[in-house]
Amino acid sequence: MYKLLIICTLLNTVSLIRAQEITAEKKILKLMGCRYEITATALDKKTAEKAIQAGIDEISRIESLISEWDAATQTSTINRNAGIKAVNVDKELFDLIYRSCKVSALTDGAFDISFASMDKIWVFDRAEHNLPDSSVVKQAAAKINWKNIVLDAKNQTVFLKEKGMKIGFGAIGKGYSANKAKAAMEKIPGVLGGVVNASGDLMAWGQSNHADGWSVQIADPKNKTKSLGWIRLNDLSIVTSGNYENYFISNGVRYSHIINPKTGYPLTGIKSVTVICPDAELADALATSVCVLGVEKGIELVNKLNGVECFIIDANDKIHTSDKLQLNYYK
Ligand code: ADP
Ligand code: MG
What DSSP designation does 316 have? Predict the structure, then answer.
């Protein structure tokens, strides 16, 4: 048995294409309102480019299904019919909403796609603002409740029970699109691997054009120009949520674009949460969830989930990690 194992390992090594023979092509473009960098590897340029195009087409297709900004999407139809009637949707959207609600249950409501009823109250323009009146916040926050998203699997309909309710996929859509783009790219004959990088939320799989495989550098929170270490990404996704990009300031406090569904207020405190796991959609949803749950409860949840790891940078730049995180620190 032991011998057999050695032979198998040798065969694998022999059949592996050497990194120098691999071509990597990359395209940068704006999709779903953010910057995507899509890379594919193959033995020839044409195959890699074909795979990239397959990824782009898939992400555009998803955008036209899930965007809450585009009035023509099924998501917008669901939102327009809040408190009025159930809306029949494609299975793909139905399933995404179903999985979103499962994450809500898993995180005790920290993750909630019905946060979107707050989107008229808060503006995350990186500027200085006064906070709105607390009664206005309270009124809008009363509409957040994933349990009022009524899913009828038999008729494939979605109904937002209350008028004024709204759903949005800002915290899960990028991850979902990365999963689906990967699947579409893998279908192209001859493609060897790739990376879908949605503004830093990324998914890497298959063979890299670097001998060591895919890896990402982790910035040092105390000195952003330096790397703290790196993480190997073999068929893994890494997703970061936090207050570094979309926020506003009020009375010297930074409010992040992640909303606590229980209060309707944007989060303060934690700077970022990074989740690493094979599924980009789950990583995306959990990164947002852990921001809401906070250091203790967030790490406790991640430690319970097989194959999911995370690290958190708190308000004082202290790093907290899950138990089995494999971060390679520079000495
Ligand atoms: P980023 O967009 O920076 O990658 P996230 O994945 O955390 O960060 O997504 C944040 C977005 O998720 C917000 O802009 C908003 O659209 C949405 N959102 C905010 N709070 C919640 C929440 N509690 N649950 C689900 N989605 C949320
Ligand atoms: Mg997220």
Answer: T
Q: How far apart are alpha carbons 171 and 303 in whole angstroms?
A: 21
What letter would DSSP give residue 147? Answer: G
Give the relative orientation of helices 280-293 and 173-186 as an angle to the nearest 10 degrees. 160
Residues near 200 by beta carbon (within 8 Å), at least 6 away in sequence: 240
Q: Please give the distance, rounded to the nearest whole angstrom, from the Cα atom of residue 240 to the centre of ligand 2.
A: 7
Class of domain 1-331: alpha beta
Closest CA to 158 of 104, 113, 110: 113
Question: pLDDT tens digit string along 253-276?
Answer: 999 999 999 999 999 999 999 999
Q: Ligand 1: list residues with CB < 6 Å.
A: 111-113, 115, 168, 170-171, 174, 201, 241, 245-246, 257-259, 261, 284, 287-288, 292
The first and second tokens of residue 198, run together, are 């949605």
State how far the Cα of 128 lies from the Cα of 32, in Å rounded to an integer.
27
Residue ranges of the domains in the chain?
1-331
pLDDT(1) > 60: no
34-42 sheet: strands from edge to edge:
23-31, 34-42, 193-198, 201-206, 236-242, 272-277, 309-313, 319-321
Query: CA-to-CA distance for 121 and 134, rounded, in angstroms?
Result: 11
The predicted pLDDT at position 8 comes to 32
Q: Could you give the 3-state DSSP secondary structure of residue 200?
A: coil
Buried b vs exposed e over 122-158: b needs ≥16 C-beta within 10 Å?
bebeeeeeebbeeeebeebbebbbbeebebeeeebbb
Ligand 1 atom with minimal separation from the 291 CA:
7
How confident is the model over 12-29, as pLDDT tens digits?
333 467 888 999 999 999
